[in-house]
Every structure is written in C-alpha cells, then in structure tokens.
Design a protein that fits this description.
Structural class: alpha+beta
Distance between the termini: 82 Å
Largest sheet: 7 strands, mixed
Shape: globular
Helix content: 25-40%
Strand content: 5-15%
Low-confidence stretches: 84-168, 745-749
Length: 749
C-alpha cells in the first residue's frame, strides 16, 4: 500500500501548482535570493531557473515539488500587497494635515508628446504618467522603463490625504519602504520643508531642525530599500538636501575653502551640537557631502539616515553631470532610477560600486540554530569575510607596509611588481593606412564589467609557491618570462596564423611593449599566452586556493541596470547593426535625466574596481604606514589586477581575430577604445559583417557589455596634423577620437 501512496504523492508533485513567472521572480527577489543560490539549492543550472522565471520552461519532478515548496514558503513571508482603495481629498474648507500627495490630474490637457524614431519605430520622448496596479508594481519595476514609472510631474494640494503614487519603484513587498529609497528635501516659498520622492510623490515635512528631520525620516518617512542578498541588510534612507533647505536647517549653502579641503564642517558647528543633544552620532568622516547620522543599533534594529548634499559637491560632475543642478523632482527621478537598479547611493559612484559588492556578498551570515535555538554570526561562504588580508609583495602598491624592508627610493621593476593596467598604446600609420580617408574609433561597452563576468578571483590570503605548474583556473600572480611569445605566429582558435606582429600591441604590457624578461602577471594574462600557442614556466607565484566568482552578481546587477536604462533611451539589445548605430546617435538628448543615470552606472563600474586598490588620501600618511582603506576586506589589489588583465586580454583577442580575418590592424588603443584607419566614417566600413552576421569572436556592434559602439570618427589628415603639431609620432588618437579636440600634447607617457 505504501508503494501506491508514494506513486500518488509523485503524481501530485508532478502537477504542483506554481505561481506565474513574474511572481516567482518577485518572491525570489523579495527574499534577497540570487538565481545562482536557487539553482544551487535545487541542484539545477542557473539557466534552468532563469527559464522558469521567464516562463520559457516549466520545472519537472523531482525539482518541481521542491521549487513549489520554496515559492509557497516565500509567498507566506512576502504576500502581495493589496491595492489600497482610492481616497477622495477633502474640500478646501475642511483643513487636514497633508502628508503625502500623488500626481494630480492636470487642469489642462497635456500637450502632445514629442517622439523620436529608432529603427522605424516611433516612441514617446517623455511618456505621460502611467497607471499600474500596485499589486503588480514590484514585479513590473524591473521591466518597466524608468521614463514610464518615474514621472517628474509633482505638486502638493493642501488637505490632500495619502494616496498611492503612479507605480513608483518602491518596495511593495516591504511596507517599511513604501515611499521609495530616497527623498530630495527642499524648502518651499513659505520656508517649509518638502520631500520629493520617486514616482512623483511629495511629502510635507513638519521637521523644524535637522535632528527632527532625522527623527521624522525614521518614524514616518517610510524610506529605504530592501536588502540585495539574504544575509545582508536593508539600505538606510537617503535624504538629499537642497540649498534652500540647508539654510532652513542652519547649514551653510556651500562649503568654505577650508571646509572643502577638510571634507566636512567643523565639529563645533551648531547643527552638530544639536544632533549630539539628540544623542545622534556621526561616522568618522564627520559631517560632509555624504554624511551618516545614526544611533548605535539595539539588537537588529538600525537607526541611521544618510545625507547627500549636492551643493557641497556630493554629486561630482565628472560622474553625475548636471544632476546637482536639477530641480528637486527631477533629481529624485535620476537618483531613484539609480537606486532601484543599482542600489541606494552610499557616497560617490566609486564608493557605491564597492558597497554593492559587499551588499551582494555580506561578510557574515546567521548560523543554523544550536541545541538551544540560538544563532550566531559566521563567515558567509563566497564573501571576502570581515577581516582584511595583506596582499602579496608583488601585488602591493609602493609605500605599503609589506614593502617596508625595501631600500628608500627603490624603484621596482616588472620582476618585482605586478603591473596589470589598461592599454595606452599607439603606433605610426603605415603608408597604406595614410591613403585611407578616416580614423574610426570603436568603444567596448562596459568593458571592465564584462571583464569581471565569470572571473574566478581569490577570496582569501595568498600562498607563495616556488616553480609551480601553471593552472589557468587558479587565481594568483605569477612570475614568468613571456618574451618568447611571437605575435607574428599565433594560434587563433585551433589554427596557427601568420600576422604582422610589428603592427600589434603586446597583450602583456599596458604600453603594448614586448616583454624583455620575467615579469609578474595575473592569471588571465598567463593563460592567454598559452591560448596563443606558447608554453609557460612560472618561476614562482602567489596563488589563492580559496577562490570563487565573487563579482558575478555585481556584474549582473550593473549590466541589468545599464541595459534597462539604455532601453528606456531607445537603445535595445535586439537592434540590427545599422539601427543600433542610429539609435546611439544622440541617445542622451532623448531624456537627459536618464542620460545622467547611464553615466553614473558606468562610473560605478570603473570607480568600484578602482576602490579595490585605493591609495592614501592625505591623512598625514607616510610610506610604510598603514592607511585607512587597508582596514577594509574589500581592499584587494589582486582582484582589481585580475579584472583589468582579463579586460585587456579580451580586447587583444578581438584585435587578433580581426587582424587574422581582415588584415586590418589598430593604430591606437586606449583602455576600451580601439582606432582603425578606414575608407568610410562608420564602423560598418571596416567591421566584417556578412548578411548581418559579425565575425565570430571579433568585434560586434551592440549594446550588451563586451560588444562595441561607435566612439567617433576623424580624418586621417587630422591625425597626421595633430601628430605633427605636437611633434608626437606616438600620440594616441583614441584619446581624442570622440570630438577631435587635442587640448595638450600627448607623448604617450
């Protein structure tokens, strides 16, 4: 009989009820689970879970009943929030405190919207305020264009009651954060504080001081963002303070020269004293452009608010463009797009890029309950842990304590120092190239993010090994002689090909020079030497046996943010090469606010990787002493080196493939930009497309990370002219190809 029961149970499990695909994704995201974590638990491939969530495939036994059980448990924890009933605003003669206002219906008809044309498809430039059932808002937030979900049309009406916004990117699954991750706080004409939230929400703020503003934010603001990973924590609410509200709360509208140099206002400032009287504390960086105000946590409850002050240069124009000059509602929209797709900003784009790594891989997690039901903090597998580790001597930058025994003013050469950096290489043009008319630059999209994708990096301390056998799967730094690699004869795929090596940069040095002897390289560089068909024999190495694909989730989050925002601007992944080039032409002008968000997302990639090897920032530091950044587990120059190595190798592989197939060689390479001489002004004039298909393994036009876009075109006469003007035969055209403006001599140094 038990066999019959088992058969019946199996039959029932084979038809286990599952929620719709969008709900499956919502439930997973609400609990902070990644696709990889679910796939590992169910012992299936990542692509399998992705297919279930996309509705492309359905799970089958025995995974189906386990997956259904997981979703059932998550549905109990994160039920769908019912859409609130609409409330009617009271008549003006019946005053009531206005706490929250949705976008009102305009008195006059909205004007006809301008459109742009991409690939023959007409789309609105700035869509009108949409409507969306809040019950499906969280599932839709990831796929709805930001231009459709985040209207900047805001207003307040006295006496308006609380109403739901038109599909804000708020945490519907978490009622604590129903008003979104952040607010831009301004002062109105009467001097009263007003908070502009994402999605067009406007909150009246009763706070009369900064201390009471912090209290109001935590008690009533309902601002914040759910955690990005299961063991992580929710993001603290972010308040962006305009100049008007700074004056309202007794803060300077701008910092003095001394305060800018110090990065903060003096500790004796009256507002800081006011906060102290309210038992609020500041972090060690004090009250500066990005300030954190908190009370020590009690149990698992946090009481912390972050401030962003644009007029104190919190939003650096190099990365945020003119965001700091936007009106409050528009600034809330820009930062809201960034927060919902990347994370709530925690400082500069570089700081946020680094914080995103930690948010996706928290250093600790709660252990399983012991016999008394008590949980303790334990190391979170796959993270960098909570304690910093020292680099290998070859990985350490000059002045690091591990190099304290070196003689003063000693200059380390390639055999002592790992020097994995991006390309800066150029060469004189050949006679044949000088007969062509144009110099065309192509640029790799999100090149360093693509370099991080799938990369195995070290998680723990290095181990020193003498005369090791090279393992391309083992992260580390290797001392090896690669001077025997001849670029005139290399393997492309499985076949040997003959090339003109003098027209190619070396893949082993940032300047493209041929190595002259043993040097330190990261694993991807040495692996590429093997790929080209040459043997390698390391002399010694510092390897990391504890390793993993730490940056995968980071890459995926930033990739998705970039692609979603570019899609909002009319540039999608399914465009033909010709339509892609058309769509990219002036894409930022279609919605300048989203253009700012795209630039910030890209800056988050480079800045976050740069922070992995942050140098001393003043602080009275002297060579041989530790500096503040060294106390972070995320101070990992070896990871930065591995990403840059892989990015440079990825680019060189495409260059070699292109040369082998077309006989064309680059004349300049700078980081992720490559310049070729061509007869026509477009990338299509030299990229080998056949029937719309690119060269396999070569350059491909498209918006996805790792694919290329048009960077700029100048004439060959321009190129020869600027080299002659500055007497610089090696002037790197890639640095100036975008607009042709050469502002200073460039000798390649």
């Amino acid at each position: 009989m038990s066999e019959l029961f088992d058969a019946v149970d199996a039959l029932l499990a084979s038809r286990a009820t599952l929620p719709p695909p969008a709900e499956r994704k919502r439930l997973r995201a609400a609990h902070g689970l990644t696709i990889d974590e679910v796939a590992t638990a169910l012992k299936v491939r990542r692509a399998t879970v992705s297919g279930w969530e996309a509705g492309k495939t359905e799970p089958r036994p025995p995974e189906r009943d386990a997956y259904a059980r997981l979703l059932d448990k998550l549905a109990e924890l994160y039920p769908v929030a019912p859409a609130p009933a609409a409330e009617t605003a009271p008549a003006p003669e019946t005053p009531a405190p206005a706490t929250l206002t949705a976008v009102p219906t305009p008195a006059q008809p909205l004007p006809t919207e301008p459109t742009f044309d991409v690939g023959g498809v007409s789309a609105p430039l700035k869509p009108q305020v949409p409507t969306l059932d809040l019950a499906d808002a969280s599932a839709a937030a990831a796929r709805t264009p930001a231009s459709a979900t985040m209207s900047t049309s805001t207003s307040r009406r006295p006496g308006a009651k609380k109403a739901a916004p038109a599909a804000p990117p708020a945490d519907v699954a978490d009622p604590r954060f129903e008003n979104g991750p952040l607010a831009v706080v301004d002062a109105d004409a009467e001097g009263e504080a007003v908070a502009y939230c994402v999605g067009g929400l406007v909150l009246d703020v009763p706070a009369k001081s900064l201390a009471s503003l912090v209290e109001w934010t935590l008690a009533e603001g309902k601002l914040g963002q759910s955690k990005l990973s299961g063991p992580g924590r929710a993001a603290d609410p972010l308040l962006v303070l305009t100049q008007a509200v700074l004056e309202r709360y007794g803060l300077p509208a701008e910092l003095s020269v001394e305060e800018r140099d110090a990065g903060r206002i003096p500790e004796g400032h009256k507002v800081i004293k006011q906060l102290a009287r309210g038992e609020w504390k500041l972090t060690k960086r004090g009250f500066g452009p990005w300030a954190r105000i908190y009370r020590p946590a009690t149990g698992s409850e946090r009481a912390c608010v972050q401030l962003c002050i644009p007029s104190w240069n919190a939003l650096d124009t190099r990365f945020w463009g003119e965001a700091g000059q936007l009106p409050p509602a528009e600034l809330a929209r820009v930062l809201g797009v960034y927060a919902s797709r990347v994370m709530t900003p925690r400082g500069s784009t570089a700081v946020t890029g680094l914080e995103l790594m930690t948010a996706l891989h928290p250093p600790t997690r709660a252990s399983a309950p012991d016999e008394n039901g008590k949980r303790t903090s334990e190391h979170n597998p796959g993270s960098l842990g909570k304690d910093p580790v020292d680099p290998a001597p070859c990985e350490a930058p000059d002045g690091h304590p591990v190099l304290a025994d070196l003689p003063r003013f000693h200059v380390r050469g390639p055999a002592e120092k790992l020097f994995e950096e991006a390309y800066d290489w150029a060469r004189p043009m050949t006679d044949a190239e000088c007969t062509l008319r144009h110099l065309v630059g192509i640029d790799v999209n999100m090149a360093f993010a693509a370099g991080a994708n799938g990369l195995n990096v070290g998680l723990g301390e290095p181990t020193h090994v003498k005369a090791p056998a090279f393992d391309p799967k083992l992260p580390g730094s290797w001392l090896v002689d690669l001077s025997h690699v001849d670029l005139s004869r290399v393997k492309v795929g499985k076949e040997w090909v003959e090339l003109d090596g003098s027209l190619l940069p070396s893949p082993f040095t940032p300047k493209g020079d041929h190595p002259e002897g043993p040097a330190w390289y990261a694993t991807p560089t040495v692996a590429y030497a093997q790929e080209l068909g040459y043997d390698v024999a390391p002399i010694e190495a510092y390897v990391r046996y504890e390793n993993g694909r730490y940056l995968d989730g980071w890459y995926q989050r930033l990739r998705d943010a970039y692609l979603a925002t570019m899609a909002d601007l009319g540039v999608t992944a399914d465009l033909s090469p010709e339509d892609f080039l058309t769509a990219m032409d002036g894409y930022k002008s279609r919605d300048p606010e989203l253009g700012i968000a795209v630039a910030a997302i890209k800056a988050t990639v480079k800045g976050g990787l740069g922070k992995l090897r942050e140098r001393p920032r003043g602080e009275g530091w002297r060579p041989g002493e530790r500096w503040r950044a060294l106390e972070r587990p995320t101070w990992r120059p070896d990871i930065r080196a591995a990403v840059i190595s892989r990015t440079r190798i990825n680019l060189h592989r495409k260059i070699v493939k292109h040369a082998a197939f077309t006989g064309q060689y680059p004349v300049a390479v700078l980081s992720d930009c490559v310049v070729y001489a061509a007869d026509g002004p477009s990338p299509m004039d030299f990229l080998p497309y056949r029937d719309g298909k690119p060269l396999p393994g070569g350059f491909k036009l498209g918006i996805n990370p790792g694919l290329v876009k048009h960077e700029g075109t100048q004439s060959v006469l321009w190129g020869e002219g600027v080299r002659e003007q500055f007497n610089a035969p090696q002037l790197n055209f890639a640095r100036f190809i975008k607009d042709g403006t050469v502002t200073a001599a460039d000798n390649g140094e």
